[in-house]
Amino acid sequence: MDTPTKTLTFETRLDLIHEQDAALCQYAELWNQVKFRWFANLQKPKAQQLNRTQFMHEMGMPFSYRVFQGVQQSIKGLIQSYQTNRNNRLVTLDVKIKQLEKTLNKLKKRCDHVAEKGCPQQAKQLRNRLRQKAAKLHRWQQKQAALVAEKQENKTPICFGGRKLLKERQALETGSAIEGWKQRWHEARHREFLLVGSHDESWGCQNAQLSPSEQEDAYQLKLLVPHQLRATFGTTINIDHLQFKHGKAAIAQAVWQNQVKKHDKSIKGQPLSFRFKRDKKGWRLLVSVEVAGPTEQAEWIGDDQGVIGVDVNPDHLAVVELDRNGNPLQHRTFDLPLHYKNDAQRAAIIGDTVRDLMDFAAQQSKAVVIEKLDFQQKKRQYQKQDHPQYARMLNAFAYGKIKDLIETQSIKRGIRLYHINPAYTSLLGRMKYRDRHGFSDHHGAALVIGRRHYGFKEKPPKQLIGVNAKGTVKTEHPPVRMALGDYQYYNKLQRWYQPLEKSLDFLSGWRHFRRVNRVSYSVEARLDGRPGMSPDLIQESATLLSAHPVL
């Protein structure tokens, strides 16, 4: 089995003297000038873009090829991030526009109905609401058209320094305020630089070499100065007594591997990348290292004894423990109260929740299985629910952060992580396992996720019984499978299931489906005491169920 790898980044604060701080500031300014020029070059049509050699010759490149690779990688990451966010915004706008169009159609019909009844005051209020909704729809359609045109033209309008700070310039009038803004604008645009490493370079990076220091658990960094700055600051900048609060084992392993590589050429070095960032307190150093094995356990935990199925939701993680045969042993819920929290609080909550999940997996000595799903698909799944609760949850939903932390913690702690196809896991969990095991919809989906890892096929029940508020029972038969693929079959199954679910009028959030020949408790016990259910309806429902030939 291939060993999974993950690039982890660890941070430390630099304690610099004045000359070193000035040298890093000059380095960052020179590096970002090249970055801005290269980004402007990429915004031209492809026929007019310069390749790397032409660009370096035209600009009189102040950096080596390895330093320029950091510029390229930084720009590539910015462009990919912007394009991903733009796609997410297009998905969100598409769903919002469709929902708002449905709302407008309902309001128009209601407005016409009220006007026919002769209620002028109510009709006026409805027309005002209709006009506001129409204006909102127009704004959203304009945003959607602008984003689509931008995507078709392959434009990436990135503002280095931030649009918020750029807009502040419009409100400034006095010369002193403008000068102060220029200083802040310059600092915001020249506050970081990136140096990329490689496994075949000395100490993992040619331009910034991290080596052990005489002090225990400390390192020294030798930074190579560009040719333009060597007359002022010398050839190298030596920064000593670097200590990392987190990732000590991963960094020590990488440094030791690079040290041994100098004497044994058969050993592959460990690439190290260094990002220098400046904030109000000074300079920070972020070291990225590739981790390919557990840092907290000696051996990997596999799926021989069973797995932990995890269904990621906006407000909680639904977890089900399974044995090797796909049978559920226990289920748990790890809450994610992310609403009304800032970014730092959400990161802390997600980190604690994922840690608790991995503690549970390590305690049970079982691997973890999650859905192979991106944020757009997950968000689209919940946007179909037209309810303010889902809108609030989606506003704070950080699916990508949750997924990344699970992957990182699995490698750190040596717990195998598997990804499965998420198609119709919620549908199958709701139909097959929710009432059988007393699960919620999400725990039923987690059970399907764990079973799918082992390749178990999920067949729908032969017949379903639904109990609605009127006490009637509706039975339907699923479609015949007729040699269709899994995706086509489950898609057809969903079209069969949705009308049955929508036709039932549930009270107090109860959604009760039961498989025929799988009745473990009486209908009277489930219906008795529910608000809004009269004794006559309970007796009628019991009579209908008792008259069913299969029951």
Task: Please explain how this structure is put together.
There is one protein chain. Strand 6 and strand 7 form a beta hairpin. The protein has a five-stranded mixed beta sheet, sandwiched between helices. The two termini are 49 Å apart. The chain is built from 17 helices and 15 strands. It has helices at 18-42, 52-59, 65-117, 120-152, 163-168, 175-189, 230-233, 248-261, 343-364, 375-383, 388-395, 399-413, 425-437, 441-453, 486-502, 523-527, 535-546; strands spanning 6-13, 192-195, 208-212, 219-224, 236-242, 272-279, 282-291, 307-312, 316-322, 328-335, 367-371, 417-420, 464-467, 473-476, 513-515. With 551 residues, it is of the alpha+beta class. The longest helix has 53 residues, at 65-117. Among the domains are: 303-458, Ribonuclease H-like superfamily/Ribonuclease H (Nucleotidyltransferase, domain 5); 466-506, no CATH class. Mean pLDDT is 79; it is low at 503-551.
The largest sheet is: 5 strands, mixed
Give the helix proportion (percent range).
Answer: 40-55%
Round the mean pLDDT to the nearest integer and report it: 79
What coarse outline follows from CA principal-axis ratios? globular
